[in-house]
Amino acid sequence: MDDPGTFARYATWLAGLREPDSPRPANYVPSTVRWMADGDEYLGQISVRHELTELLLTWGGHIGYSVRPSARRRGIATAALRMILPTCAELGIDPVLVTCDPDNVGSRRAIEGNGGVYEDTRSGKRRYWVPANVGAPTVADTPA
């Protein structure tokens, strides 16, 4: 990634993953990828998978994120998850399935901090459903 041309091709490929007919590796689904940064400092990335395969329904969920080790424990994953939820709503994904390892306390806090409701543990992953339209009016909030 030291070469600007290589980086540009990679960024273009990532951006293209959101298109349903874009070329992608086998078993990949359309996805939207966002980078987490503080100025010029790369902190991590978060991805929204637009659909779920059987494996993603059990193990991976709609959202995947990673924060580089030197940037952890600063609330970055919590903020990134909060900021990507409107994208999920725009894609018609609500609620959003987010999973984590049982021993990943930081990820559990990020998910629960965004309203994630624990459903169960499958194949070694804790599964949570997170509302995408947090703060959006509900039927009960709509005046008659």
From TrEMBL:
The keyword Acyltransferase applies. InterPro entries: Acyl_CoA_acyltransferase, GNAT_dom. The keyword Transferase applies. It is an enzyme of class 2 (transferase). Transmembrane segments: none annotated. PROSITE patterns: GNAT (PS51186). Its EC number is 2.3.1.-. GO terms for molecular function: acyltransferase activity. Residues 1-133 form the N-acetyltransferase domain. PANTHER family: ACETYLTRANSFERASE. It comes from Nocardioides jiangsuensis. Keywords: Acyltransferase, Transferase. This is GNAT family N-acetyltransferase.
